[in-house]
Each structure stands twice: as C-alpha cells, then as structure tokens.
Write a structure and sequence with these properties.
alpha+beta, single chain, about 20% helix, Lipocalin, eleven-stranded antiparallel sheet
C-alpha cells in the first residue's frame, strides 16, 4: 500500500486520538479551577480538628501558598512555622485527580517518605474531593515503619472564602481551615523548589 501525504495525516490523526488524555469529571475540573483561581496568593490557616499526633502544628503559623499553576498541575506549599518541607501537588490525570505530598529536607533533597497520596475514587463534587491512599504510598509507609498511615484518606474542600485540608483514618481526624478572604504575605520558597 502506498502511503500518501493524506494517509500520513490520517495515521497521525489516529495516533493522536489513541494517546491517553486527562479524564477528570466536570466536578473535578471545577474543583481544580477553584484552587487555581487563587494562584500567586497565600492564606493563613487554623487547626480545627486534631489530637496529640498533630502537636507539630500547635502554636505555629500555618500558611498555604497557591504557588505554581498550569492547566494540569497545581503546587501548593503548606508552611508550618519555619518548616517549609511540604508541598501538595494536585494533578489532573486520565483517571481523575491525584494528590501527592512532596516532602523535602532543608537542603532540598527528598525525604524518604515523599510523594505519597492517592487518586480520587469518585467524581466528588465541585467543592469536595477525597483521595484514598494508593498502593505506592502504602508500600512507602510500610517500608518506613508508618503502618498506622496505610488507611489514610486525604480530603480537600474548596468553598467560597475557605479552603480545608483534612486527613482521616481510624483514631485520627486532622483538619486545617484556611481563610481565603484575607491573603497574607508570601512565604519563602518551599525547600527544594526555586
């Protein structure tokens, strides 16, 4: 069979349609966009649920910074006082939204427990998304003696005027609410990021 210019275009078009595309629902896209709308701004939060396991957050200034935004990835550092080790990474994928926790040391190197998180298991809603722990994270937690974390579910709520980050599992319910009505001074770059 002779391949003409037009049949090459047809092959290229067919190949293009065969590539995996992001497949987030309308609800997930609206949720993602509601966070992206705050790109470049930082907001202060308050712990509104927690227990002794969350003592590292007590008395510290808690700041989220919607720092890096593209059509498919949001990077939101979560600063705890002078600890700039945490960045939430929310990504649109062909399976839904994925949440990862990028943890770094002060020198920028990756923590041994990093990029853990999970994929949305349902469409969620325009204001709420949940991320049950994934297999990579379970293995990472087990390898590092954190078996208590293998049933983690992370939740994010984006309502007008308020953003919430929440972690739940048996005997743990940690929640931080951020006031989106009052932007604050931008924090320094998170460790390992420019």
């Amino acid at each position: 069979m002779k391949i003409t210019k037009y049949s090459q275009i047809g092959l290229l078009t067919a190949a293009t349609f065969a590539l995996p595309a992001t497949a987030v629902t309308t609800e997930q896209t609206t949720f993602f966009d509601s966070i992206a709308a705050h790109c470049g701004k930082a907001f202060e939060g308050t712990v509104t649920a927690g227990n002794s396991a969350d003592s590292a957050f007590s008395g510290k200034k808690l700041i989220m910074h919607v720092r890096e935004c593209s059509d498919t990835v949001l990077k939101v550092p979560f600063h705890v006082g002078d600890d700039h080790s945490r960045t939430w990474v929310i990504t649109k994928t062909q399976y839904g939204l994925h949440l990862a926790h990028d943890h770094r040391h002060q020198d920028g190197s990756e923590d041994k427990v990093t990029m853990y998180g999970g994929m949305t298991a349902s469409m969620g809603s325009t204001t709420e998304q949940s991320f049950p722990v994934d297999a990579y994270s379970i293995n990472n937690f087990r390898d590092n003696g954190l078996d208590v974390s293998i049933t983690n579910v992370w939740h994010m709520y984006s309502h007008p005027g308020e953003f919430t980050y929440r972690l739940t599992r048996e005997n743990r319910d940690f929640r931080v609410d951020f006031d989106l009505t009052k932007p604050v001074a931008l924090p320094p770059a998170p460790w390992g990021h420019k």
